[in-house]
Task: structure prediction
Amino acid sequence: MEEWIIDKITEKNNKSREEILNLISQRKNQFPELTEDAILRMLATENGVIPIKRDYKIKEINQRINHVNLSAKIKRKFPPRTVTVKGREAKVMNFVVEDETGEMPVVTWNENYIDKIMSSKDGEKISIANAYSKENPFNGIIELNLGSGSAISINSTVTKQKEETKIEYKKIKEIKDGETADINGFITRLFSEDIYLIRCNICKKKVDVECDIHKDKALSKTLRIRGIFDDGIYSSSITFFDKQADSLLNLSQNQDIKEKLNDISFGLYQLNINAKMNKFNDNYSLTARKVTKTGYNLS
Ligand SMILES: [Zn+2]
Result:
């Protein structure tokens, strides 16, 4: 079973692992034809957890999974072999990747990837997008397969087969009011004024410096960073609150917050952002939900 889904439900709904496992076995009695995984996905949806995961650690890839993104290191390469499949010659290559959770074999039949990997050095970083994992029928070991819809990037050099099969990024213009979508692009500007949202927790109101009534008794200070995000075609204002603001600031190695903001303001950082859109007439305003730095060059 996909443990991460159980973790997500646990996190979100304060249910214990045991409760979830109990629910699964109850449902199993009700719907004996469903697999435990299917039931788990059903429970996830019922509990407001979207059971789609794309970024994995090696340890989590322990069964057949269709869309796997993985960041790892190339550990070992085996020379490509030529084999005959259905009367035709084809090249296949195996290599091993590792991350902090373990190592796993990868197999590819794609000549571009074979060349790319052969010219890499052991220990180099590799980002794999949209691979799939399955059991090798000969030894029972789970392997990662790079198919024609996958993309790999070694040390930020990019090889792509098919762009459209990767994570579906929306263009800012396509996002509807109220919709949450994944976007990819650059921060082209950050505003360094007013980066804290100050509230009086007794009045539950936004205040400037302190509350007129309660002074500084119950003030809370939250990061709120505003800027401009550009997807290459269109740009929109974007706001990063709290944790998202933190992940944004963490992109810069600088210690000082103003320096960090300055650093990130010049479009140097290509980001994947999951954001919610609010449209007022022609004003686009995004609120970041998740911020990830990307190694891919999608331009
Ligand atoms: Zn107050």
Notes: The two ends are 37 Å apart (CA to CA). Confidence is low (pLDDT under 50) at residues 156-165. The pocket of zinc ion is lined by residues 200, 202-203, 211, 213-214 (CB under 6 Å). The chain has three domains: 3-46, 55-165, 172-293.
